[in-house]
Amino acid sequence: MDTASACAEGTDSELAFDVFARTCPSREILEHVTGRWGSLTVGALREGPCRFNELRRRVEGVSEKMLSQTLHALERDGIVHREAQPTNPPRVDYELTPLGVEVADRLLALIHFLEGSMPEVLAARGAYDGTRGAR
Pfam families from the entry (predicted)? Predict the structure, then answer.
């Protein structure tokens, strides 16, 4: 059975892939895009192409190793394009592919929604923490 068949097995969807299926490769891509560093990297690259250190400064808190791993995964998934310039010293630019732009637009809509909802989230946290402390 091929991967697409394994992903679609047991679903009524017309899509060949089902992120809820354990063996579906879409699950791995979802993790790459929605993990902390993946989402921040994709969001930052939506502002335009960046060099590695520019991107590292923009995504505060990411280590060099994690950013490198994230960029490799996103490049492999076709979301990020890496272009090495034959200069001395070498220059490497990262930018979103057309697929990456679409992913970033959807992701940024969620990010903006969450940022705008922070007063509600913080109030809910305060209420939750207040009831937990009263036990």
Answer: HxlR (PF01638)
d(CA 25, CA 117): 32
Domain chopping of the chain, boundaries: 1-26, 35-133
Helices vs. strands in the chain: H and E counts, helices first: 7, 3
pLDDT 10s digits, 94-110: 999 999 999 999 999 99
Which one, of 100, 31, 42, lies nearest residue 67 by Cα? 42
Give the pLDDT confidence of 111-122 residue by residue, as tens digits.
Answer: 999 999 999 999
Query: For residue 53, which of 91, 108, 107 has the smallest C-alpha distance?
Result: 91
For the chain, list residues with pLDDT below 70: 1-13, 134-135
* Structure confidence at residue 40 (pLDDT): 96
Q: Which residue has the tokens 């995964």?
A: 73
Non-local CB neighbours of 95 within 8 Å, separated by 6+ positions: 45, 48, 49, 50, 80, 81, 83
Six-digit token pair at 92? Answer: 């490497």
